[in-house]
Fold this sequence. Notes:
With 170 residues, this protein is an alpha/beta fold. It has a single domain (14-169), classed as Uracil-DNA glycosylase-like domain (Uracil-DNA Glycosylase, subunit E, 3-Layer(aba) Sandwich), CATH 3.40.470.10. The protein contains six helices and five strands, in the order E-H-H-E-H-E-H-E-E-H-H. The protein has helices at 23-28, 39-45, 84-101, 111-118, 152-159, 161-169; strands spanning 14-18, 66-70, 105-109, 126-127, 137-141. A five-stranded mixed β-sheet has the order 2-1-3-5-4. The termini are far apart. It comes from Sporosarcina globispora (Bacillus globisporus). Pfam families: UDG (PF03167).
Amino acid sequence: MKPIKDHLKQNLDLLFVGFNPSIRSGETGHHFANPNNRFWKIIFESGLTPRKFDAFEDYKLLELGYGMTNIVPRPTKAADQITKEEYKEGREELVKKISELKPKIICFVGKGVYQEYSGRKKLPWGIQEESVVPGTIDFVAPSSSGLVRMKIDEIIQIYAEIPKLLRSIR
């Protein structure tokens, strides 16, 4: 199964970074396409988008100044199928993308994504004290996977900090 296309451009306001595509995303070619993934509901209900987008419209987030990528491009059934080598390569590639494209805020969709990217183990939700790439803001949010045990309202509350942050830096 082929990796799915990143949606990237220079100077994005916000870049979403996931673990890797699901099998469903790999089949459709679109980010967060698994029907059990709540990403599209979360970003709408948190105030990040004016309406609930469908996974097939993922590229339209670029019109809002938002991009999408993953730390590992290979689709898998679960994140535990990702190898250490894939994380290492993905981390290096992600640092390169962020350094070149200079998004203002990077939202890591899952604490584990940020742990793999930063090498840090203990970290809070939200803005991180120090960003990996200087000049950007690292923001850690819960995974949108349906497997996450956190209440959806709590997840939405954390994502709702991002629109406030965007307004403060614009």
